[in-house]
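REVIEWER CHECKLIST
Item 1: Sequence provided? yes
Item 2: Single chain? yes
Item 3: Sequence as submitted:
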Amino acid sequence: MEPLDRFTRNQRIIDDFAARSLAPIPSRFGRLLYVASLRDLSTGDYSHAGLEGTYPGGGVNESLKYCHEEIFQQVLELSLADQETDLKLACTQIEGGATGVAERWLELEYFRLLIPLGTPDYLKDLFNSNFRLLLELILAPTGSSIN
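Item 4: Structure as written out by the authors:
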């Protein structure tokens, strides 16, 4: 099913999720982290207890998949410098601070789990290389950044 068809059919769910769950998250990477965390890694299905109490489960799954893909695209459309700023903001919201997060995520390559299923290989490669670079910049001595 085409993304526009999914959006039209599930617009109420998407709007509700965006307003209640995504709007309070101050960064795109933070939103990406959140929506990716709603995906079951075994099945690839998304779930959200609050939405599923109001809307049909299949619609919730489709809506969250749509949101995941859209947020992923938004991140890739940012310049690398803006991605760096946004990721640093997201890391400030995570326990352990930016340096601790960067160390763990580089070791585990956690960022690979942020990619929506069905993403073309060239976009996966771009995202992974950008994310790895951004994490290395977080770990670099003070003053290192993209500008």
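Item 5: Key structural point noted by reviewer: The mean pLDDT is 92.
Item 6: Recommendation: ____
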